[in-house]
Amino acid sequence: MIQSLSSFTVTVEYARSHTTFLARVNGQREPVARMHREVHYEGSRPYTVTAGQGLAECAGFVSEWKAWLPDRTPVGTVERKSRTNSADRWTFVQHDLGELAGEPAGAGSRLRHASPLRMAFDAAQVNNVLSHRLRFRSDASEGFALSRRAGIRSGYEVTVHDPRVSRLLVFSCLAQFNRFVASDPRKNLIDLTSNPLKD
Q1: What is the pLDDT of residues 88-108, one digit of tens each?
Q2: What's the pTM value of the predicted model, to 2 decimals?
Q3: Phi/psi of residue 119, each to 5°?
């Protein structure tokens, strides 16, 4: 199941009637997990995460802020607080692991998101051509790293350093980053052609 994933990539598909994240390992063509909802990316419905043979097994549910097991048991929460003069504050709170703080990792990410020059680099066009990396950890956990690859099409790489980290909650973090931080012209096209009253 998805809890065994330690290093994987994620691509995003946008449409007026659905949003789908596909996770793959080792460059394989076939996805090992899918996060999907039958509404465009601005919708409010939770994603259903599936894995296993034919991606037919329900692994749980996620929103941009929370994750639940298949029986709807809460896993934890993800929160981003935007700050003007310093890096956004990310918190990843897993009920059986505690709170992990997410910070920009790597010189480029720190320069653009955690330095006084932040305002000069925070334009969507810059984020489209440069990668961005967040490292989540705490004193009790080595956590995980999430990277958005350079380019206008959303693509992510995830490396899990602590096997206790919930992959469902990692997917929730991806969904939040993708919706509120990442820029992708395909999302703009969906905005222009979608019904804003459909959730």
Answers
A1: 789 999 999 999 999 887 545
A2: 0.84
A3: -65, -30
